[in-house]
Amino acid sequence: MHEMALTQSVVDAVCEHAAGRRVYSVKVEVGALCAVVPDAMTFCFEMAVEGTVADGARLDIDVRPGAAQCRSCDAHFALSDPILLCPCGSADVEVLAGRDLKILSMEVS
Ligand SMILES: [Zn+2]
Question: What is the DSSP code (8-state) at residue 34?
């Protein structure tokens, strides 16, 4: 379950930016290629924030589809999962988006 490591890095960054203030909610954007299961991430978040300034904070997860371009046929297409295959059948694709995990916003006291 790699959500734990990802979530821990989010919580670390959030606590650092909160600088001692109480955190009420955190919104993150996760690329589809991160293969994050939102429910698992929420579960990890609840454990990771325990005892921190973000204890009890709400986590909003926005899963963004990825995008890729095929080197064989030049098509642009969306990626909804980590399987890198162009509709033409080629696996020679370049990933343009979908690998990022970003903190979009957070609500502090
Ligand atoms: Zn193609």
Answer: G
Q: Tokens in use for 107?
A: 């609500």
Q: pTM for this structure?
A: 0.84
CB 94 within 8 A of CB 71: yes
Phi, then psi, of 62 in degrees rounded to 5: -110, 105
pLDDT for 55-86, tens place per residue? 999 999 999 999 999 999 999 999 887 888 99
1 vs 71: CA distance, rounded Å: 32
For residue 32, the CA-to-ligand 1 centroid distance in Å is 20
**29 Cα: distance to centroid of ligand 1 (angstroms):** 27
Element (H, E) at 98: none
The alpha carbon of 42 and the centre of ligand 1 are apart by a number of angstroms equal to: 35
